[in-house]
What does this fold into?
Amino acid sequence: MSGRSIALALEYHLLKKDRALLRHIVSPHLQARIRRYARAGYLQWEARAYNRWISGRLRWRAKRYGGSTAPGLLSIVTAVWDGTPLLYFEKLAEAIAKQNDRGHCEWVIVDNGCRKNELLAFFASLKKHSWVAIETSAENVGIVSGLRLGLERANGRYILPVDADDWLYPDCLDVVSWWVRETDFPPLLYSDEDKLIGKRPVQAYLKPDFDPVLLLNSAYIAHLGVIDRQKAFELNAYSDKSVEGSPDWDLFLRFLAAGHAAIHIPEVIYSWRMHPESTADDALSKPYIHTSQRAVLERYLHLSGIAEEYKVVYSPLLNGTADWWMEREHIRPWPALLVVLGGTRPLKVPDYPDLPSITLPIHAGVDALQNAVREQFGESEGLLCLVSEDLHIDRPDWLWDAISLFEKHPDTVMVGGSIRDGHGRIISGGLVLGFEGGAGCPDRGRPAIDPGYFTQMRKQRSVSAVSSQFCVIRASFLRELPDGSIPLLGASAGALAFRTWKRIVYSPFLSAVSQIDWEALVTPEERLRFKQTNRDILPDQRYYSRYLGLSQKSAYNAASGIMPR
It folds into this structure.
């Protein structure tokens, strides 16, 4: 057995099996070495598995998308400055040339005040291609103004902003063109992506479908963005120097504020190259990203007309990183009722004024909650807060955060969060309908300190469902739910929201500790009935990629999910 295999075996036992015994006989230094070997071995295994999977996808895609690129449809826009690594720029040019042999796609290159002879010489060599247009600026005008020059020079119906040091898959233009036509020329599209280390693609981000909640927390649709050029002009794209570090996110939120949704291209066609100067490797290489991202969110709040009730502050969940939270001011509270489940006495939320509370046994059923709503609100709107008695809630402002989500996303009917056990392991978080055959949490069993798949455990985002152990529900939506057990209410609400085009949101600001695993309170008969009743909508692939596994063992693993045909 190799040293690495031994390390992997020891890591498994250290974390999963005879933990107490091995931690007594293995020194902390050796434990650290074991973990390093184990992580390195896992990452290599993951990279090999992903390379096999993406190779298979490329073969499948050649049959479906081949020859789709049409003239006049696409313009790639790339801004180049003296800090651009020539080697990577050449690799990008090679990738574009190989798939653009008919010249159907335009490539607009912005010479952003370049002075280096090697870059100027390469510009000159590219002029042999009739589909290359070089727009020259006498000086480096920055990222935003450089992209604006490219937008103004482009002729295609859509622009594709691509960094000079990144890479496009060999069928990227065909895939984009096919999806643009297939979805009837939407205002905005985006694709999945991965990262590139040398020649090896790694860390695929297999993204959810368009999610305005996640978009306000992360520019997850940036690569590869496909943007209607005329719409970009109408929204005054790339015009604000205060968003120098986040021009794409600013553009996407302008589209969102104008009421435009984006279409998801569920294919990896863009690689974000990792090297010392790239934010793919280290966001601190561009410190102005912090102020840029804050400016982006503040603009969105103003465009949405709700700036007075919010302030943009660093996320307390991601210390020191360029991650921001739109914190709701504690003013103008909504009518609400707190229901303590399994409790014998009412509880109060310290910083929420005049919050009445009642207690109900867990086995009371949804009809008892509906009766409580009628007594409290009549036929008016209000919020029902469900909290099991044993919960130890982390933050006293959780209800204000839930209200912020109902306000920013009016189609939201339910908000929930993460629950961990006394050992710091996730019991429940965002649920996926169809996971483990019913409604399960892919993050179940993770350490709570783990930020999750692309830090999604720390981000507000849309999900299929949330646990009813700790949640906030619109009274109007609760009235529509079928009767059933309270532990199953989260799954039932998720199915009804799916069928009625409503939104359920996960927020990490609703987090708590519990010694009770509510998943175990749902009976086998209830699980079977839920699956039979909702087999037509399972699995829900809106917010959990179709390519990711639907079991605890295969969660977040590429190639484990459903391959489209």
